[in-house]
Structures are given as C-alpha cells and as structure tokens.
Write a structure and sequence with these properties.
mainly alpha; 5 helices
Amino acid sequence: MSGPAPGGGAEVLELGGPSRARRGPSWSRRTWTVLGVVTALLLAGAWLVEDRWRGSSEAALERCRSEAAEQVAAAERSLASMADYLRPGLLTVPAQARDSLYVAMSEAAVDDLPRVQTALDTCRAVDPSWVHPDLQRRRDDYVDHLARRVDLLEGVVADGRSYYRDDPELEAERERLFGTG
C-alpha cells in the first residue's frame, strides 16, 4: 500500500508555467492603453514644439537672407556706379596720377561697409537648433558669404584699387545664395 508523499501533503502540479509571484506584477490592458496614450500625447507635443521652433528659425533665416541680399546688391550697385563714374578718368589719367580716383572708390565703400556688416551681424544672430542641420548650413553659408563681402569692402576702404580685382567665386556664390541681382 502506498501512502501519502513524504512531507505529509499531496503533491501539487503547476500547469501553465511559473506562478505570478515569481514573474512579477502583471500589466493590465488598461495600463498599456494609458501608457500608449501618454506616449502619443508626448510625441505629438514634441512634434508641435519642434515644428514651431523650426518655423521660428526659418523666419529668422529668411530675414537674414533678405537683408543680406538687399545689402549686398546695394553695395554692388553703389560701387559699380562709382566705377562707371571713374572709368573715363582711369582710362585717360596716367597710372601714377590715379591715386585720387582710387580714394574716391574707397570713400564709396566706406558708406557700404556698415550696411553689409549689419546684415552679417543679423545672420550671425540666427541660431537654428542642432536638430535642424539644414538650417544651420544655410545660416553658415550666408555668414561666410557676408564675411567675405565685409573683407572685400574693408580692402576697398583701405585701397580703392582692390575693387578692380575680380573674384568670380564670390560672384558665383552670391548668385547661388541670393539669385542674380
């Protein structure tokens, strides 16, 4: 005759895997639903904030581009106008007597330099977020171009002769950034 199992009680068989006590707390369907809704709301809020942030950066960058294009075009018109005015003198006056004509070109650049410098400062103040590298690249392109323009104007202010040195790369860059002017 066989008796009860050693230990005095009946043997219990567990079906269906480990018990809840060993598995940890169970998440109900309602908990998962609430977690999903909260996550969706957080993502939607982050998307809206990012969209507004990008829109704000794009608007500031457009103001930068617009002011830069306007000031670069105004400086080019001013200096080209002075060059047209001086051209007959440069063609008829001997090279050793042209210094006063180059001074006139320098004086024309003096008026343009602060306007282009202001446009450069405006563009430098635009600070797109690191999550918008395309806007950062555009801002950097504008700043680099305007810095080169400021250098060119400073060179003309220092010596009017420097206006007559061509820089086709700078012109091509202006056309790429701002269109033809």
